[in-house]
Amino acid sequence: QVQLVESGGGLVQAGGSLRLSCVVSGLSFSNSDMGWYRQAPGKEREFVARFSWFGERTDYADSVKGRFTISRDTSKNTVYLQMNTLEPADTAIYYCNPGGRGFGSWGRGTQVTVSS
User: Fold this and answer.
1) What's the rounded Cα separation, in Å, for the pair 6 and 94?
2) Scanning 4, 7, 41, 49, which has the fewest C-beta atoms within 10 Å of its C-beta?
3) Which H or E run includes 4?
4) What SS3 state is found at 29?
5) What pLDDT, in 10s, does the model give residues 2-42?
6) What is the pLDDT of residues 34-85, one digit of tens each?
7) How many CB atoms within 10 Å of residue 54?
8) Alpha-carbon distance 43 to 55, whole Å?
9) Positive or negative CA dihedral for 94, 100, 103, 106?
């Protein structure tokens, strides 16, 4: 059974930074693509970033490109999302997602709130 535990969210002022973590168990982490998604109040869940294990390719939503960085530590079965230059529009619950395609398992998420 896949388990995902996100952490690292919080309240931050616009322009600040946060690093989210997601500890993954129940799958072959080193051979799995991983993604981050987010859901703002009243909106649908949307793609943020994906790490593809083959070639270690990264992909980002246009809205976060240049500000967010996805990475992973296979020794800790953990995927990270470094978020810099945060904006109020980044306020959402952030979820990690095995496969990074928006289906399958989800954790409880971690709340990120950016004040203006």
Assistant:
1) 8
2) 41
3) strand 3-7
4) helix
5) 999 999 999 999 999 999 999 999 998 989 999 999 999 99
6) 999 999 999 999 999 999 999 889 999 999 999 999 999 999 999 999 999 9
7) 7
8) 33
9) negative
Residue 58's φ and ψ, nearest 5 degrees, are -120, 145
Contacts of 4 (CB under 8 A, 6+ apart): 22, 23, 24, 95, 96, 97, 98, 105, 106, 107
Cβ(29)–Cβ(41) below 8 Å: no
Token pair for 85: 């230059």
Provide φ and ψ at 61, rounded to 5°. Answer: -65, 150
